[in-house]
Amino acid sequence: MKHISILVPSHAVLGSIEGPRQVFTEVNRFLAGIGRPPAFQVQLVGLSREVPAAGGLYSIHTHAVPGDIAKTDLIVIPALDGDLPALVRENAAFLPWITRQHSAGAEVASLCLGAFILAATGLVDGRQVATHWMAAAGFRALYPQVTLVEDRIITDEAGIYTSGGAFSYLNLILYLVEKYVGRDVAIFMSKAFQIDIGRRSQSPFLVFSGQKEHTDDAIREAQEYIEKNVEEKITVDELASRFAIGRRNLERRFKKATANTVVEYIQRVKIEAAKMSFETTRHNVNEVMYHVGYTDTKAFRTTFRKLTGLSPIQYRARYQRALETIES
What we know:
This protein is an alpha/beta fold. It has helices at residues 15-33, 84-90, 94-103, 115-120, 136-142, 169-180, 183-192, 217-228, 236-242, 247-258, 262-280, 285-291, 297-308, 312-327; strands at 2-8, 40-46, 50-53, 58-61, 74-77, 107-110, 128-129, 147-148, 154-157, 160-163. The protein is built from 14 helices and 10 strands. Strands 2-1-5-6-10-9 form a 6-stranded mixed β-sheet, sandwiched between helices. A two-stranded antiparallel sheet has the order 3-4. A two-stranded parallel ribbon has the order 7-8. Helix 5 (136-142) links the parallel strand 7 (128-129) and strand 8 (147-148). It is globular.
């Protein structure tokens, strides 16, 4: 039986504590029903025996504090809600316990914005981590030594797991159920909790707004120029000439400021404009493609799929149905 420690940090998102607890507990109930022993012992672990949640609307009664647990097999770090750097400091007493347990063989899973606490342990320096795409810029600024993969729902590297945004943490919990107990049980849980077990990317849900939380004014002007001229075919050389910056210097500064190359940024801006058009108009794929400055159908479809995980036709069908439902 695996011992699972679900942390209860200050200002945790209640659902990301109760959701994993429910799924792991339901696995035990299902196994009992088919004559198999329980797979998990689940405990809530807080820095105190009672932790307020949701701005004090609820109180969570924990089973233990870190000092009570000599050894655990899996630590689950839930999402946080609030000023993330401040909350990492507020919950810093968890960090040495997490690192000690990991050194003793425990695996660690962060859910959504719980990645901020995980990164603060130093365990993922140089590794890939997922978190909510809306927090990507803040995460990169705080933890530049960690490789953020903002399009991923799940990462699995050396016994450390992370999940993407919001309720996608349930995909990671199912992934762990499958790993620990088996595919058949994970499939049953996916049906019981109505979770899409096959979803591995949060790309269709990303909204690219451009990273402007930096101090390089010339690069910010270049970003704004790209965003205001989405229908144009903009090249790196053109930008270098327009803003009087050498090409190599422009590319270096652009990557440092935005975490994207110039070409990646242009592509993201154009595809974001295309997504918006699919979501709010009834233009067909070719009309949208030309509107965002593409003339090569294959290039547009390839780039769109790379950045969203869906083809333009699939994206248009999904979100125009949503538009029609709202309007009706």
